[in-house]
Amino acid sequence: MADKSIEFKGTSFTLSVLYLKTLKLTDIRASLIKKVAQAPDFFYLFPVMVNIEEVDSSFDYQAIKILLEELKFTFIGFTGYVSEEQRVLIRALGFSFVNAAKSTASNQKNRIDDVAKVKYKETETIREYELYGDKIHRGQVRSGQQIYAKGQNLVVIGSVSAGAEIIADGNIHVYGSLRGRAIAGAKGHHQAQIYCQNLEAELVSINGNYWLSESMKQHWGTPAFIQLTGAELTSSKLI
Amino acid sequence: MARIIVVTSGKGGVGKTTSSASIGVGLALKGHKVVVIDFDIGLRNLDLIMGCERRVVYDFINVINGEATLNQALIKDKRINNLSVLPASQTRDKDALTKENVGKVLDELGKIFEFIICDSPAGIEAGAMMALYYADEAIVTTNPEVSSVRDSDRILGMLASRSRRAELGLEPIKEHLLLTRYCPARVAEGEMLSVEDVVDILAIPLLGVIPESPAVLKASNAGEPVILDITSDAGKAYQDVIARLLGETVEFRFLQVEQKNILSRLFGG
Amino acid sequence: MALIDYFLQKKEHRVTTAFKAKERLQIIVAHERSGRNKQPDYLPQLTEDILHVLRKYIQVSDRSLSINFDNKGGDLHVLELNIELYDENNTD
Known about the structure:
Chain B is an alpha/beta fold.
């Protein structure tokens, strides 16, 4: 029965991450003060996570938290791709450690998802993503049918007819002709790719960026794969 | 147990009833007990094509509602002993057909007949869905033309998901492609989809190719299924279909443009 | 169709199937239109029942009996019954 007084819901927020290029607190302090001075209102109570991938064992976690709070930031916690020991250490010190949001199969069942979604720096550092499992569909996907591989890659052993729609959170592989619509990276996965033995699709889309048939002229009717290069879709010869 | 074969297409006017009639006749001529059922709700066609329109007293719905027995409703073909027709109702009440009551009628028919051919109406509404529900096999009738192919594909999707076999996870319906109104000359000129094109898109085994033929219109005018016109290309093509349905391997005829010489042009062929 | 067939056939013969079709349609459409003047649903069963009763007393075939429902306009409906008695000359 549902709790009548409270409820936890998974939500994504965009947060900024502070990358430290030095361990010297005095330098960090000076740089931060300069930054805040540029837009004091903006940075007032600004929620921030601190990326600790570059730090070593001498790092004073407590000090950076105090410094940020002194400058009126709202310190959320630490983040980054670090060892289990570091994570344990940080939590032992009483600080939050939050990873960037990712959806694994086990998380799907978890109602309390990761709350914070970390925003990457402009010159995108692409981290390794979790490998998705494969959903395998044997047989043709006929006009009017829709297949959705939630939290998975989709492998179709057969052709996809015009008027059919296949969707995956991960990659899409079609061992056959792709004549319908293929939507990969449906939940925001930028690196998703679409592979097929014969490209004759009505529409292909990766993370919301799409092409209609007219854009597929270069590799139309041949084995091809489609990926996102920056914000543009590109097609390439498959074999 | 009887083989229940649905003749369906999605698209209208492609040759379902023409094919149901000829296939029914063909199988009966080979000695099998066959019944052909018109599954349309409200528009009767099979009886006209079979030539028994004047002998319709009771129909499918009458049997379902208990207003008549199967025996009273079934129309025995005058030409062939083993062949019967169950005509469609003229009512527009699509709720009259339910899975249960249709199933019961098919069970009863299965005790008498070896082949039950279900002539489906066009579309994907009640009549069409009911016609395909109990099928063991499906003959998907397609014209080499874009909307027909697309609709056939849609129907194939339905056969794979909305049939009884699909619902119960049984062995799937055996699908056959029947390509009708084929014109080799236009294919040669690149104006018409070829057999290969259609098979490539629909990806089901080819049962037969029926060439476009004036004999088909003559046949329906006369109420004599075209397979009985043994000189016509269409009639011969349907005979090949019967052979294949009964397990024989038959080469596909009428796929190439015929090279007629002057003599055959004068004296027929 | 071969040229020689064309010359040898008489005109009526040549249009034979269309003629047949027209004939069949005229009959069936007329029948269905009259049907649309609302023959009550019970007629077939009524015919059966009456035949059954008749057969207790006389010899009749299925075609001996015809029942017709006529809407004579307004409130007047007429149910017409026609029974053809057995005739030695009729072989059924």
